[in-house]
Amino acid sequence: MYSTIKNYLLIAFLGGLSILAMIIFVSALIYPSLPNISHLKKYYPKQPLQIYSKEGALIAEFGEERRNFIAISDTPQQMINAILSIEDRRFFEHPGIDFIGITRAALKNITGRSHEGASTITMQVARNFFLTSEKTFKRKINEILLAIKIERTLSKEEILELYINQIYLGQRSFGFAAAANTYYGKNLDQLNLGETALLAGLPKAPSRYNPLIRPHLSIKRQQDVLNSMLRHGYIDKPTYIIALEDPLSLKDKFMKSELRANYVAEMVRQTLFKEFGDKIYTSGLKVYTTIKKKNQLMANRAVRNGIINYMERHDLAPPEDFIEFMSQKFENNNDRDKFLIKKLKLIPTYNDFIPGVILNLQPLKIEVLLKNGKKISVYKRGLKLLKKDLSLNNKGERLLKSGSVIRFVKKRNYWIATQLPEVEGSLVSMDPKTGAILALVGGFDFHRNKYNHVSQANRQPGSIFKPFIYSAALEKGVTPATLINDAPIYITAKELNAIENWEPKNYNEEYDGAIRLRQGLAKSKNLVAIRVLKYINPEYALDYITRFGFDQKKHSPYLSLALGVGQVTALEMVAAYGVFANGGYLKQPYFIEKIIDVKGRKINQKFSITNEETPRIIDPRNSFIMTSLLKEVINTGTARKAKILNREDIAGKTGTTNELVDAWFAGFNPDIVTITWMGYDQPRTLGEHESGSRAALPIWIDYMKPIINEYPIKMLETPNGIIPLKINPKNGMLAKEDEDGIYEYFYDEFLPKNNAYFLIN
Predict the structure, then answer these.
(1) Residues of the chain with CATH 2.40.50.140
(2) Of 209, 122, 198, 111, which Cα lies nearest the Cα of 158?
(3) Model confidence pTM above 0.90
């Protein structure tokens, strides 16, 4: 036995000498041609573009690699000790090559006790920065020589810093700081010893020891690290025992961000790409948006619920897939479920709409297997969409059967059966005082449809455009008390400069005769709006609306302008309604609060528009009266559902386009303005009764309900030049002193004279 060991030691020693001799010989030939390593002195790793909410919740990352640079001085000593104990415990003693380690590895390999290399941390740095991972003699010699060169150029601390930030640790993560966030959602200094040891064990084989994929192997590797730390004196026995029981707070492996705001993230990415090009994916920029986390969460929920509710009002479409399993023979239900789950995993999940296969159907209950393997039962209140199908007497007419694949959404404590929608919805919310976007949902799901229905979709606004016509009319002497004839109108093709005559109608085809302008707007009377526009002249109105930021080219100087048949985006609408909300200023919407570079410096503030010097674009009196009129829409008009918020300071307007193609709601108070929309990408009717009040307004209410009470009730102060007068609500004339009436607002230069009024007929 003794002689055998001697032979092994001799072989190992001779092997070490041979390697050393070979290194010396080859060095003379190769060393001069080694790459220049001076740039490592100024090394900053490639880091992805990171996008955050205003509060710092991660929205998205753009870049192939996850990196977070950390200086060696900021790296916890516990992390350093764990790395050195398992990777290179003589790091601070050797010159880049550990000859003791080489000898030990050679001995173990010869005896067959293990198969290990002897790469030092310096050698790993050389390989990561300059070489491939191919296992050839030439590559290994280059690695050794580069390690020697690096040791001559950099300090041990600088080399260790490079290693800590450059090493690959799985899940697209490079460096220990990035890995801490990827696996735990924490900073390095927030990790316990057990979590630290697990990370330190990853460099050997990141895929094999990935705790999200192979937790049992990662735990075994963690224990190897802790054993090594104990053996080499980095920790004592009590600390070791505690660390073995340390909780590992791993992130959900499916968690990609802290806040779903993909449409915002893409807007940021496009904006920065235009300015900086491809550099944005590697330069480590951190972009803090204007998006508020709570607002965005509520916006996501509101749009999703609005779409679900819309689908439940309409008929069930055929299921998106079918998995035949009833005719197949399985040993047991577990085998059946494995078969079904394998099929379901091929179907992507969108916006928490989880694919599931129906196992059993009853009139008031269905049993389902979800893609994630969970079995659920869906009961009556979750079966609204399926109600008609489940209640059919003739089962042969049913769309659904065992094996049908549809979607399921968790709502509070129960499940809803649903489908992927064809319809789209959107929401944008803005601070009217600054233009800062508070929440933005550009569609049902970004990964399914990247088309942004807030910023890209030009749609007919319908009746939410009427307030801008009325705003123009106020400057022409029309008042809220002015009577307008709400009666059918016939306009010839010649008057329209068109091919066909035009006979517009009110939405409900009901007509009230002479009514005040206030009533006409509240009830969204088309004929009132047309007559007002005819009175003030369409060309004047077309010029006037450009004050609100609307593109004149997308609208026409004809009477149809009053019905909102032009083209607008929701982003344009939120800015335009912001003018009424803030007293007359056009604040350009912006979504980038600040940009921080890799060194923590603020850069390029051109993207952060504060609008401090924004000029007033309409008379404050106009803004005041329009807000008053739009409050009436909620108090007595088409948006009465919004009274559920129990706020005196909210105003708004419903909008529905011809043939019920687009449904809108625009609502605001002095602190927040929000636009909601619903429609199809390829314009078609939303269906009977699907007006702005039914389809879009509930989304607005759902969003505003948890948000609005964060703002105190603010009643607008009456600006100079506004005179409140008592009028007869029936005829719009000034009321006599002893006569009952209501108060209405007037410009001081457009006061009613001699109890007279004028009628727009």
Answers:
(1) 318-418
(2) 122
(3) no
